[in-house]
Amino acid sequence: MGLNYDLVALDVDGTLLRDDHVITDAIRDTVRETASRGAQIVLCTGRGPSGAIPVLEELGLTGTIITHNGAATIDAASRSVVHQFDMVPEQLFGFLDYCRSRNVRFNLNTALEMFVESLTAEEEAMYAHFKEKPSIRNLGAGLPDSLVKLSVFGTKEEMDGVQAEWAGWPQTLKSIRSGDYFIDVHHSDANKGRALQQLAEIRGIDRSRILAIGNYFNDITMLQFAGMGIAMGNSPEGVKQAADAVSLSNNEDGVAAALREYAWA
Questions:
Q1: Which domains does the chain have, with CATH numbers?
Q2: In contact, 184 and 176? CB cutoff 8 Å
Q3: Measured in whole angstroms, how far is the alpha carbon of residue 8 from the centre of its chain?
C-alpha cells in the first residue's frame, strides 16, 4: 500500500477534468486514495485560484496550488500567496494595444483576482465553466498592481494567428499556449516546472520523488522537472514526446490509470 512518489502534481483542464469539465468518481477516488497513502497532491494549472480551489475541494483535499501557469503559488486554505512572479506593467502595454486594436478578448490577473474591460453573456458563461468571476474595470485608466498573467482567448484559428505574431516579439514577457483557445502572457521566469521546483525545495522533496501529469504545452516544464512526467493520451504530439510515459485520455480516466500504474507501489 505504499507509494513510489511523495508529491503528485496534476494539471486540471484536459487532465483531471473531462472535456465537459467533470471530475469522474474514478478520478476522485484514485486521487484521494493516492493522498491517503501519503502523497502530497498539488494542482498545477493555468487557472487562477478562484477556478482551481473548487476543483481541489471537489477532490476532498486542501493544500498548496500552483496557479497561473506557475506565476502564483497559493495556500488554498488561507487563500494567501506563497510566491508570485509580478510583471512590469509597462511591458504589457504592447500586448494590450494589440488586443484592443484587433478586438482580441483578454483578461488581466493578479494572484487572486481577474479583471476584464467588458463582459458579454457568452463570455460570462465561459468563465462560469472555469468557476471564474471576473471584475469589470476600466483598465485604460491604469493597471492593477501586482499583475501575474494576461490571458487572451478566441477560436483556435484566431489564437494560431496571435501565437504566430507574438512569437516574433521581444521576450521580455513570455507568451505560452495553454490550450487550443487560450494564450497566456506572464513573467519570463514563470512556468509550472519552476514553481514546482520551488515548492519541492521548500518541502525538501527530491525531484526523483515527484510525479507530474499534464496534457498541454504549458505542462512541459513540469513534466520534465518531475522524476516521472506523464502526458495524457489527448496531448499534442510535442507534449507526449517531452514526457516519460503516456496515459489514457482525460475522457478515459487517464489520471486514475496513470496513478495506479506508476504511483502506487
A1: 7-84+190-263 (3.40.50.1000), 89-187 (3.30.1240.10)
A2: yes
A3: 15
Dist. CA 196–CA 67, nearest whole Å: 11
Q: Are 244 and 230 within 8 A, CB to CB?
A: yes
Provide the pLDDT for residue 140: 85
Residue of 11, 6, 7, 4 lying closest to 230 (CA atoms): 11
- Compute how many other C-beta atoms are within 10 angstroms of the C-beta atom of residue 199: 22
Q: C-alpha grid cell for residue 218?
A: 504549458
- Quote the pLDDT of residue 2: 84
Q: What is the pLDDT of residue 99?
A: 97
For residues 25 and 45, give the distance between their C-alpha atoms in angstroms, rounded to a whole number. 21
Q: What is the DSSP letter of 142?
A: -
Grid coordinates in use for 241? 514526446
Question: Up-side HSE of residue 190: CA atoms within 13 Å toward CB?
Answer: 30
Query: What's the one-letter identity of residue 246?
Result: V
Q: Which residues of the chain have pLDDT under 70?
A: none
- CA dist 170 and 167 (Å) reads 8
What is the C-alpha separation between 144 and 136, in angstroms, rounded?
12
Give the contacts of 104 (CB within 8 A, at least 6 positions apart). Answer: 98, 152, 154, 158, 162
Indicate whether this model's pTM tops 0.70.
yes
| pLDDT value, residue 265 | 82
Distance separating alpha carbons of residues 44 and 73, to the nearest angstrom: 9
> Each residue of 108-117: pLDDT tens digit?
999 999 999 9
- Residue 196 has a pLDDT of 98
Cell numbers for 146: 501586482
76 with 56: CB under 8 angstroms?
yes
All 3 cell numbers of residue 260? 495506479
